[in-house]
């Protein structure tokens, strides 16, 4: 394998390198190199755009009588891909860039132009300060004022940083504890909800909400023999009953008795309707007592007694 690659060469014992003839080459001759376009450019002849990174077979040469701090400057020649116009550019070690010379114009040079403008303005200000002492004094005064403003803003930022917000790190760690599973967290939250519900006193809220009376009617059938029982108090009846008073027309009919309400709930009366509710309650109570109070039974007249006597005699026959 070593013979095929020719990595080692044979030198005879009587080899003398000084006897090898030297080739006479030009002092500033050109070399053919492979390179890529260092920036975007446009051909002046045909207007073709050549983008950065496009590869070319270029000719390279040294720029005569031009150096920067002992660094050589090189020039390159390429051809347009469309019209074969020759384009030349050279290195710029001072700005670590390339400079176009002929054949094309460079695109997107805004950053480079801005940097050149900033350097030019800085140079002009330095020259003006060296020649004008009043301008130097104004610049120093402005600089000291800017430093004072920066110190004040820095002090304000320090004051803001000193105001630390109190944070409960224990609760935060418990909330975002990775060791606690999802199920355990749900169980803990349910347990906390149950303890909170138990701690709430609903009795006081119910007492302070007001009173409401809900009546429940239970209808019972009474026979004719139970009519002699004393009537209940009028205030305990929810509605008047027309069948409670005995009469001749309803002698054989069944009587209905209504029981007192079983459930007492106290509603919270509205602020503006207290007097209206009291008045309505008093009126309803008076009407109920007047309607439920049994009327006094009149003594049977003589004709009715005679009719009853005649009926009983016919039944006996």
Describe the model:
- This protein is an alpha+beta fold and 317 residues long.
- 38% of the residues lie in helices and 21% in strands.
- The protein has eight helices and twelve strands.
- The chain has helices at 2-5, 110-131, 133-162, 169-175, 182-199, 202-207, 274-292, 302-316, and strands at 31-36, 41-43, 49-50, 55-68, 71-79, 86-92, 97-102, 104-106, 211-214, 219-222, 255-258, 263-266.
- The strands form four sheets. A five-stranded antiparallel β-sheet has the order 1-4-5-6-7, with no helix packed on it. It has a three-stranded antiparallel β-sheet with strand order 3-2-8, with no helix packed on it. The protein has a two-stranded antiparallel ribbon with strand order 9-12.
- The radius of gyration is 59 Å and the shape is elongated.
- The relative contact order is 0.05.
Topology as a string of helices (H) and strands (E): HEEEEEEEEHHHHHEEEEHH
Oligomer: single chain
Beta fraction: 15-25%
Biggest sheet, spatial arrangement of strands: 1-4-5-6-7
- Could you tell me the number of beta strands? 12
Helical fraction equals 25-40%
Low-confidence stretches: 235-254, 270-274
The major beta sheet can be summarized as: 5 strands, antiparallel
- Gyration radius over CA: 59 Å
Alpha-carbon distance between the two ends = 159 Å
- Gross morphology is elongated
Strand-pairing-aware structural class: alpha+beta
Mean pLDDT: 74
Annotation field: number of helices:
8
């Amino acid at each position: 394998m070593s013979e095929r690659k020719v990595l080692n060469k044979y030198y005879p014992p009587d080899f003398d390198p000084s006897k090898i003839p030297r080739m006479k080459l030009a002092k500033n001759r050109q070399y053919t190199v492979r390179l890529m376009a260092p920036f975007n450019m446009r051909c002046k002849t045909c207007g073709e755009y050549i983008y950065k990174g496009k590869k070319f077979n270029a000719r390279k040469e040294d720029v005569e009588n031009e150096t920067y701090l002992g660094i050589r400057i090189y020039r390159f020649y390429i051809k347009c891909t469309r019209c074969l116009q020759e384009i030349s550019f050279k290195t710029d070690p001072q700005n670590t860039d390339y400079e176009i010379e002929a054949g094309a114009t460079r695109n997107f040079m805004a950053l480079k132009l801005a940097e050149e403008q900033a350097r030019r303005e800085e140079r002009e200000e330095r020259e003006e300060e060296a020649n004008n002492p009043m301008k130097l004094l104004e610049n120093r005064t402005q600089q000291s004022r800017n430093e004072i403003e920066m110190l004040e803003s820095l002090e304000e930022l320090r004051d803001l940083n000193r105001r630390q917000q109190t944070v409960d790190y224990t609760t935060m760690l418990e909330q975002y504890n990775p060791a606690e599973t999802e199920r355990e967290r749900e169980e803990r939250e349910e347990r906390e909800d149950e303890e909170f519900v138990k701690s709430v006193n609903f009795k006081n809220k119910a007492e302070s909400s007001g009173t409401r009376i809900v009546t429940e009617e239970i209808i019972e059938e009474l026979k004719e023999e139970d009519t002699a029982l004393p009537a209940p108090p009028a205030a305990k009846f929810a509605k008047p009953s027309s069948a409670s008073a005995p009469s001749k027309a309803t002698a054989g009919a069944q009587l209905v008795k209504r029981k007192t309400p079983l459930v007492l709930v106290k509603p919270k009366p509205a602020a503006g309707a207290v007097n209206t509710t009291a008045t309505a309650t008093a009126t309803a109570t008076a009407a109920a007592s007047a309607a439920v109070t049994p009327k006094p039974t009149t003594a049977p007249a003589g004709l009715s007694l005679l009719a009853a006597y005649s009926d009983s005699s016919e039944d006996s026959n």
